[in-house]
Amino acid sequence: MPWKHWSAERLGIALAILAALGFSFKAIFVKLAYAVPQAVPVDSVTLLALRMVFSLPAFAWVGWKASRNLPPLTLREWGWVTALGLLGYYGASILDFMGLQYITASLERLILFTYPTLTILIGVVFLGKTASRREIGALLLSYAGIGLAFAHDLHIAGEMRAVLIGAAFVLGSSVSYAFYQAGSEPVIRRLGAARFTALAMLVSTVATLLHFAVSQPLQALAQPAPVYLHAVGMAVFSTVLPVFMTSAAIRRIGAARTALIGTLGPMLTIFFGYWLLAEPMSVWQMMGAGLVLAGVLLISRRKV
């Protein structure tokens, strides 16, 4: 293999690993922000609004740059970008942030990581596709793993209602993101990845700020400095950089290998939750994570 090709491959692998690291740290930033001592803890809508505002300059610049010298979007294209932006970056995010108020970061990441298998289900139920034995096996593995991790959280929380509420919110987030994944591929082919991602992010930012405006007083934006720091960290290291690193990795090593490396995410979140949040780690939880990853890998292997 020529040196330049080998170097590009190594760079692509490194970028994919860094993207997985950044995405896995999002839940940690959220939990750290929720834990900042103050009379009224920051709520999910305010925290998401801060994340989107701090991410906005980067995506606005990318959207402008990617759209230069190109014809404007048609009304139909704007409709698709708006619908997918609401599903993928607003709907999925707000449900995820709400769920993290009730469950551990580790369980959140495992439930959220079911979106590849949920995408298969969406294809079967809504798009008339059929599921292969491999895909059915992946579904069974993933949800067996979620069951083990769920039992672990239920044991340590000691309150079934809180875990059920949190898990339901995060599962709703995963479903929303799976619909986004299923619908975005043809739009990305038409508009390009950078342009679509930036525009969808701008749509979700507007939706988030509207949600904040109708549900929270303006004074809610007045938060302690640590909350702002966690929101900035989430915007930079768990939103903007991972999105662009993933795109760069896909260009160098392909979407399938990038997705496979992304399966590091749940394991990294479990480790950081244990290290930084003092979340307990058990054999059952690790077994659950292993089953979820096995299910995702089983789905991904057919694409490699």
Automatic annotation (TrEMBL):
Keywords for this protein: Cell membrane, Membrane, Transmembrane, Transmembrane helix
Domain of life: Bacteria
Any Gene Ontology CC annotation: plasma membrane
Gene3D superfamilies: 1.10.3730.20
TM region(s), chain numbering: 45-66, 78-104, 110-129, 136-156, 162-180, 192-215, 227-246, 258-277, 283-300
Annotated EamA domain residues: 11-149, 165-300
Protein name: Multidrug DMT transporter permease
Organism taxonomic ancestry: Bacteria, Pseudomonadati, Pseudomonadota, Betaproteobacteria, Burkholderiales
